[in-house]
Structures are given as C-alpha cells and as structure tokens.
Design goal:
CATH topology: TIM Barrel
Helix content: 25-40%
Oligomer: single chain
CATH architecture: Alpha-Beta Barrel
Order of helices and strands: EHHEHEHHEHHEHHEHEHEEEEEH
Number of strands: 12
Strand content: 5-15%
Largest sheet: 8 strands, parallel
Shape: globular
Distance between the termini: 25 Å
Strand order of the largest sheet: 5-4-3-2-1-8-7-6
C-alpha cells in the first residue's frame, strides 16, 4: 500500500526491539536515585553508549541492538527534558545525547508520552501536561522545526485499554495537545512524525483481539473537535501488543486487521513469549522464531518489535520478568557509572554497568533481522 503518512516510509520495514535497560539494583518501586524507569538519557550513558567514563567502558546496548539488524527501539518512559543545550534541572532528563547515539547506530526511536502523563491529563491538569509535552517536542526537534534523525514515531501511552485511570478519549486529547504544540513551534506538515498508541491484544465485545480498542481509539479521535477529519489517515499507525503464536499472527495480518481497518498501516509494538509459557530458553527462542517467520512486513503490515532486549528481573517478578533476549551476567561484580554530581536526585551516586549474557533468543532475532 502507499504510505501517505509523513515520515513513515523511512521507517519501513520495522525491525524493532523493546528497550527498558533498568540496572540490576533497580526495584519495582525505584530507589530515589532513579525515581522512574527512564534510563535512555545523559545520566546513564554507560548503559546505552560506548563511554568511556574514566576507566569504565560503556556497555553500548545501542551497538549491540543495531548489530542484530534491528532499526527501531520501542521505549516506554521519557522524563521531562530541559531546554536544548541546558543542563537537566531537578527530575529532568536530557535525551539529546541518546538520540544522537541512536542515530549513529542506525536506530530510530518510538518517543513515548507515558501513561503517567495521560493519567495527569485525565485528572484535569491540562496546562501542566501541555508544558511538559512542549518540552518533549522541543527536545525531539532540537529547538527547531526539523526532528532529530533518530526520532521515528510518537508513542502516546501504552495499552490505554487496560490502564484504568484514563481512556481512549484521553489519548485523543493528548494527540490534540501534540498538534497544538507543533503549531505553536511552527513545525511544518512535512516534518511532523507519525503517531501510535499501542493497545493490548485483549479480545472484548465479541471482536478479535485489539479490534475493540482500535475502534475506541478511532472513535475518540473522530469525536475530538480539535483534530482534523483526516487525522487518522494522515498521522496514525496501528500498534498492537501481541504474544500469540506465529500461525495466529499470520492470519491476523492477512485477514483480521484488514477486515476492520483496510487502510490503516499497523505493526506489532510488542511480540514475544515469557518463560512461564514455554519450558526453557531454547523453547522461547523457537517460539519467537516462528512468530518472526510469520510476521514478515508486507502491504499495510509494517513490522514488529520483539519484547524485549533485557529480562526485567530488576523491576518485575515472576514470568513477566523473563521475556528478554539478554539477562544479567552475575559472574563478576559489575563496574559502575556515576550520576552527574550536580544532578538532583542522585547526584554523585553510582549505578551498575551490568554485563549481559545473551539468551538463545538473541541469536534468533539476529537471524530474522539480518540473516
């Protein structure tokens, strides 16, 4: 199909990896030195970048991910940034150096407006959220009107259909704020980014998985008087989080989604399996290999993001922690990086630059993405 959405064709085929690189000393309730789950910023460069910092070499996750043939990162948290070129203030995070390094590695990024901000918007704090989103857009456009090269799509919330404290209407409201901010900053139509709002694969209302949530999203966008009548067709990319087997996904791509949304490009924004659903790491790799084989981009189906790069044993427990392509290698104590001394909170505190061990899934993804 012809992709009429500005700046979408350059991202296709989508060969993505979900990326949440929490250090091993993180916890489900983050320690104050971390305070959230945003690690793709200037406070933690030894996790995603090459470094060095003193005698410590960076782990360089971006190069590792790029080496698989991946070209897209699905992120989940993007703290409010400072003005371009300014040092981060209290609880701010600067992502400019991360975006520059991602571009150098040949990676594009789904820049998230996380569920936190959608919850604030739903509570009625529109002015504050607009200010926060304005800072995000300004950073992504580096203070100008052309996006930084690594900026691929906006990701508005994650699984709004399961959130509980906000709805599709709130997502449409956030999209309207984004459009307003783009106008305020003078960003021309040819430089705006595609937008996705990942939904779960829940089957509700007697409909196939994700269809009800996508219909709710389209209805909310159509009902929002601040959005143009062609907003859906000119900005929206369907994003679905699915963990079904490869044969199911093949049928869904060929028949199910096109039946309900024949003109909407879409991708799987999460795809994988955890170790609670399969017996071991080899079986996990085999399962995902079948998913990847059955989800080759074609037509309106743009690609997929494997969930995820690193086992989330620091932030989660049980099977939810075991989706990763890699895991912590705890054979030796890790070196540490240091949060900049003048940063609040956590200035001068250290974070582990954990060595990672590749699970069999890593080779599976590399084979699918680069052959």
């Amino acid at each position: 199909m012809t992709l009429s959405i500005a700046n979408l064709a350059r991202l296709v085929p989508l060969q993505g990896v979900c990326y949440s690189p929490a250090p091993s000393d993180d916890t489900p309730a983050p320690p104050q030195k971390y305070f959230d789950t945003d690690f793709t910023n200037s406070c933690f460069p030894l996790i995603w970048g090459a470094g060095p910092e003193g005698s410590v070499t960076g782990r360089n996750d971006l190069a590792t991910i790029s080496g698989t043939g991946a070209n897209l990162l699905h992120l989940y948290d993007w703290s409010v940034p400072p003005a371009p070129g300014a040092s981060p203030g209290q609880y701010e995070r600067s992502h400019t150096s991360f975006l520059q390094a991602a571009d150098a590695a040949g990676l594009r990024v789904i820049v998230p407006v996380s569920n936190y901000f959608l919850g604030e918007l739903a509570s009625g704090d529109t002015a504050t959220v607009k200010t926060q989103m304005t800072a995000m857009v300004t950073e992504v456009y580096d203070g100008g009107t052309t996006p930084m090269a690594a900026a691929g799509l906006w990701g508005i919330a994650n699984e709004f259909d399961l959130a509980g404290n906000f709805s599709a209407t709130t997502v449409a409201q956030a999209m309207a704020l984004l459009v307003e901010i783009e106008a305020d900053l003078g960003i021309p139509a040819e430089n705006v980014l595609p937008i996705c709002a990942p939904v779960s694969f829940a089957a509700t209302g007697g409909l196939p998985p994700a269809i009800s949530a996508m219909q709710d999203l389209k209805a909310a966008i159509d009902d929002n008087g601040e959005l143009s009548s062609d907003f859906w067709s000119t900005r929206i990319v369907g994003a679905l989080n699915s963990f079904n087997d490869g044969d199911f996904l093949a049928s869904y791509i060929a028949d199910t989604f096109p039946t309900y949304f024949p003109d909407t490009p879409f991708f799987f924004s999460e795809m994988g399996i955890n170790l609670g659903a399969v017996p071991d790491e080899d079986a996990q790799a085999t399962w995902v290999a079948a998913q990847l084989a059955k989800t080759v981009p074609s037509g309106q189906f743009l690609g997929r993001c494997v969930f995820q790069f690193l086992d989330q044993t620091a932030m989660k427990t049980g099977t939810e922690a075991t989706f990763g392509m890699t895991k912590f290698d705890n054979t030796t104590p890790p070196p540490t990086g240091t949060i900049p001394a003048d940063y609040v909170p956590g200035g001068g505190e250290t974070y582990p630059v954990d060595a990672l061990a590749q699970k069999p899934l890593f080779a599976t993804v590399k084979e699918a993405y680069s052959g």
